[in-house]
Amino acid sequence: MATQNTAPVISGIEALADNYDVFLCDVWGVLHNGVHSFAPAVDALVRFRKKGGTVVLVSNAPRPGRYVLPQLEQLGVTKDAFDAIMTSGDISREAVEERSGQTVYHIGPERDLSLYNDTDTIQAPLEEADYIVCTGLFNDETETVENYRETLDVARRRNLWMLCANPDLVVDRGNKLIVCAGSIAAAYESMGADVYWAGKPHRPIYEKAINRAADILEHPVEKKRVMAIGDAIRTDIAGAVNFGIDALMVARGIHGHELGVDAGDALIPERAIEWLSKQAIQPTAIIDYLSW
């Protein structure tokens, strides 16, 4: 594991690929930005798999993995770049199924309603619901957390439990930062409410992803042979480090502005090291963008 201020800046993953059997790779911010895929990143994963590596995409998408696959294909993330996908939607789906027969108030766009497909979940008004599921904002192009203050006040008075199906606070959509479900859930939790966080940086999604890799490889996976790849220090890197696996941080993601690469400029190692020195969690290495 890297120690404080020592994470090296690398130019590609080829030099370290032989150290790992499994990559747990983030999706949004590493493989695509919601508008188009990143060809060098897709190519890097394809090359890793050709060398015998296994890739499990680990995403905080609030929909089960099978519903994320069509979007990946549409954006240009080809199937030969990964072996499986595990999402916070998969974790959320299990939590919903455990509450069979209860009513839910859903906060989030209509596209996320696939979370409830083939369940007996009944949606209800906030004043009548048994619990809340937050997958995002109803309109993340125009709304902020402030638009939900009244809703959160009502929910808190009713002492409703919230399932946060996407722990991300923000993501990049093109060149714009978009508020995610995690920001609403964080506001609710700050009010003293009970929030269950599905997905990164929490342990269950890593356990399930590694178990999936073990099924693919047909043998147990050693943590020292696993590396997580992601662009968010709070979720991707912290989650991996706390789980006990190595982590490669991609600079050209949600921290791009802080690291000086959001305008297309190359990552400056000194700036990366300075930024990392201020972080409580350290990656094993940092890279400008995922490439071979």
Question: Concise description?
Answer:
This protein is of the alpha/beta class and 292 residues long. Helix content is 32%, strand content 19%. Helix 3 (65-75) links the parallel strand 3 and strand 4 (84-87).
Written description of the protein model:
The chain is α/β, with parallel strands linked by helices and 292 residues long. It folds into 2 domains: 168 residues, HAD superfamily/HAD-like (Rossmann fold); 107 residues, HAD superfamily/HAD-like (Rossmann fold), CATH 3.40.50. It is 32% helix and 19% strand. The chain contains 10 helices and 14 strands. The strands form 3 sheets. It has a 7-stranded parallel β-sheet, sandwiched between helices. The model has no long low-confidence stretch (mean pLDDT 93).
List the helices and strands and how they pair.
Blueprint: E1 9-10, H1 14-17, E2 22-25, H2 39-50, E3 54-59, H3 65-75, E4 84-87, H4 88-98, E5 103-107, E6 122-123, E7 131-134, H5 149-157, E8 161-164, E9 170-173, E10 176-179, H6 181-189, E11 195-197, H7 203-217, E12 226-230, H8 233-243, E13 246-250, H9 256-259, H10 269-276, E14 285-287
Parallel strand pairs: 1-14, 2-3, 2-12, 3-4, 5-6, 5-7, 7-8, 8-11, 12-13, 13-14
Antiparallel strand pairs: 9-10
Mean pLDDT: 93
CA-CA gap between termini: 21 Å
Note the total helix count: 10
In N-to-C order, the SSE pattern is EHEHEHEHEEEHEEEHEHEHEHHE
CATH topology of the largest domain: Rossmann fold
- Tell the overall outline: globular
Number of strands: 14
Query: Which strand-content bin applies to the residues?
Result: 15-25%
Order of adjacent strands in the largest pleated sheet: 1-14-13-12-2-3-4
Kindly name the structural category.
alpha/beta
